[in-house]
User: What shape does this take?
Amino acid sequence: MNYNDPLEPAMIITKVLSKSDIVGNVVLPKAEVMSVLTRMNVNDQDLLNGVEVQVDDIMEDDLYTVTLKVSGIDKPKYYFGTGWSTMKHSLDFSEGDVLKLYWSHLDNKFVILNFQYSVLPLMIPV
Assistant: This one.
């Protein structure tokens, strides 16, 4: 997929990370996840057991594997379980940061849309 092309808004998940997201598993916004699920080949039982999905950081050329799960059917709570800890530490996420993901159904993976990086100061010769 060419990520310079316009992205489908319905395939974007945005989450401002809370302290509990950083300490434990990240709980994802229900409505946005349910929208993405329309393009994923998974069912409720798959999600109860956990589905491994890939999350691609195309800027750093890193690929993470996380487990997308749901707890409860009556009042579902969607979250990243296994693999989230590695991903959040690698990306140096902290409370208040924004996690923005795009579900690329053609590539069958999430792509990180918010990149955490720092810029080295410009060195000017004296």
